[in-house]
Sequence to fold (372 residues):
Amino acid sequence: MAKRNRDEFNSETQRALALRANYRCSFPRCGLPTSGPSDESPRAHVSIGVAAHIHAAAPGGPRYVPGMSPEARSAITNGVWLCQTHSRLIDSDQSRFTPAVLNQMRTDHEARVRGEMDGMTKSTSHSNFVALGPDIVFVGELVRAESASWDIRVDHFLVGDLGTLIAFCERFDHIASADRFVLVNALGDGRQLAAAPAWRKGDEGDLLSLKLRPSAPRINAHELPTDIAANEANDIFLEHGDLATVSGVASLPQRIKMCLSVLRGEVPRHPTFGSRIKEYFDLFRDSPWLPHLVKLEVIRMACVPMDDITAEHPYTALRSVLRVRSIEQLPSGQHGDWISFRLHLDVEGVGPWHCDLPIFVPTDKQAPKHKD
Fold:
């Protein structure tokens, strides 16, 4: 007998459900972690999480709705992240676990995660998001800092896992220099790595020891070079019969807007230039985590030198930004493919500085795949 077609979640939807649930079971009073390390090898991990359908993926399944479209059945709104035990429980007791109950279960769990995230950002603790290279983001804390080395505790992976971390260490010498970095949201700062990270088990958990390159040089914002100006519609325009130009501090908003609006991988001559905000937006849309991930990208472009062999001296994409204090997504700040954020920065030659900027995030375009 042929296997009945099922409207399954794709891998991106499953990952998004898991991330929005913080990889914990959404069942009330469970909250069991659904992924963790395996003893099989240093790179192996175990997963007991299930992207469970609220309305079944095929006829005969729990809570199946015949008139529902395949797209709706495989949409993230038809899913809830559960451990294997509670996934089986909800399917064996359909009268108790109705679609309304399961939708509320997901909503309540994501609200709890959101509350934990909000509490973390308002805490006096330095525990916050940390990025290590382009494929790893985790919640952790900077526990030791010297002039050329940092020790960071790893609490929980958000993007990537222990296997990804070990692979990053093993491949370090073959990774583009612009992708050898550490970024710490709590500091609003980051550094290029001088050597592969060292990972070890400590009394307080998993610890990373990092050797750092010196902080990248910055340009006084008053000395930023002249560039062609663009108006609010992102078009060049004439002023007194000539192309309008902008320079110095006045050019900083335009530079930041341009750098953050280019997708990483779009510029063939500079494959590591551009931001990953599009990728994060696709995964964390309407999530409290999105501004934290945008902040990591601004830190990277402010602190990590670009790969440019023609440059006489190393320079960062944002040139004058010393530190990223905070990033806020503005309410009702989305207009088409433009999303508005408020940036609070420390700028060389200016000091504390802030602005509201729209960032281009194309909703109908696939983000380029980055390569090492």
Notes: Confidence is low (pLDDT under 50) at residues 121-126. The longest strand covers residues 321-335. The first helix runs from residue 11 to 20. The chain has three domains: 11-122, 128-211, 255-360.
